[in-house]
Amino acid sequence: MNTVLVVEDGLTDMEIISCYLQQAGYSVMSAKSSEEAQEKIDINKPDIIFLDVILPGKSGFEICRELKINPETSKIPVVFCSTKNSDVDKIWGNMLGADGYLSKPIDREELVGILKRLINN
After folding, report:
1. pLDDT tens digits for 73-84?
2. Which of 1, 47, 78, 95 has the fewest C-beta atoms lying within 10 Å of its C-beta?
3. Going edge to edge, which strands form the sheet with 78-82?
4. Does pTM top 0.85 for this prediction?
């Protein structure tokens, strides 16, 4: 079973995204801050990461940049899930190496479509 890390400080969004992922057959880990996310990434090496942009500590943009320049984590797909959904935010996420960008509220079909595109089941 593929493991997904959801990094989200909002309880409602965390529950919605986690529920969609579990219903799609994925094992879900969660983190509420950049520090907690880094610990889980180091220990568990998830298959894909869903990452909020606005977090306590480092921003999602900073986390993505660090993951993509680290040879041990650079191949893990990163998908932003954010209310910051302007074209500028999406372009910035793409420039930092993100593999996808979902706007909140999260659409279940869009989420599953990105999973199928990024993870070979």
Report:
1. 999 999 999 988
2. 1
3. 27-31, 3-7, 48-51, 78-82, 100-103
4. yes
How do 27-31 and 78-82 pair as beta strands? Answer: unpaired
Reported in sequence order, the residue ranges of 1-121 that DSSP labels E, i.e. its strands, are 3-7, 27-31, 48-51, 78-82, 100-103
Whether 53 and 89 have beta carbons less than 8 Å apart is answered as: yes
Q: Tell me which residue has tokens 């935010």.
A: 89
Distance from C-alpha of 54 to C-alpha of 34, rounded to nearest angstrom: 10
Q: Is the pLDDT of residue 119 over 90?
A: no
Q: How far apart are alpha carbons 62 and 56 in whole angstroms? A: 12
List the domains of the chain with CATH numbers: 3-118 (3.40.50.2300)
